[in-house]
Amino acid sequence: MTADDWIQAGFAVLAEGGPAALRIGRLCDRLSVTKGSFYWHFTDMREYRASLAQAWGDLHDEQRRRFEESAEPDPRKRLATMLRTLMRPEHWALERAMRIWALTDESVLASVQHSDRRVRCAVRQAFIDYGFEPDEADLRSTVLFAAGVGLLHGSGSRRDVPAPLGERVLDLMLRR
């Protein structure tokens, strides 16, 4: 058992049950190990939660970096790829749980905000590359990002947004 095994189990538990579900016993049951294994890797639940938030931030930074460094010259295609990536069902539940957790934990909030800034910067750049002035690109990237987060939270238990909806939102945001 490695610390990463615990982190991956935490992501699964968090996605399934939210931050309240992060309990040592539940994690041990999921991994079929004793609490001693948990304490071998983490001093306490506080350290574990901090490690989990950090790992999520690192994972999303890697994904966001791909957005920023995309070689795709067509800004509409770049935006469509970002939307598809961020709206994948396997990404959906964990993203939603992290945002809920961020409401009660400042370190998680900082991680989510850092990640959000990177995404908005990449989206803003795509709007500029599409031909919008910087002020207009700021507005559109903020609105598109907020719409995505709204879809995330407004979906209830439905975890995927139909592709045509994403395309229609993108068409609307690119309209002059």
UniProtKB/TrEMBL annotation:
It comes from the Bacteria. The keyword DNA-binding applies. Coiled coil: none annotated. Pfam families: TetR_N. The keyword DNA-binding applies. One of its GO terms (molecular function) is DNA binding. Keywords: DNA-binding. Residues 7-47 form the HTH tetR-type domain. This is TetR family transcriptional regulator. The lineage of its organism: Bacteria, Bacillati, Actinomycetota, Actinomycetes, Mycobacteriales.
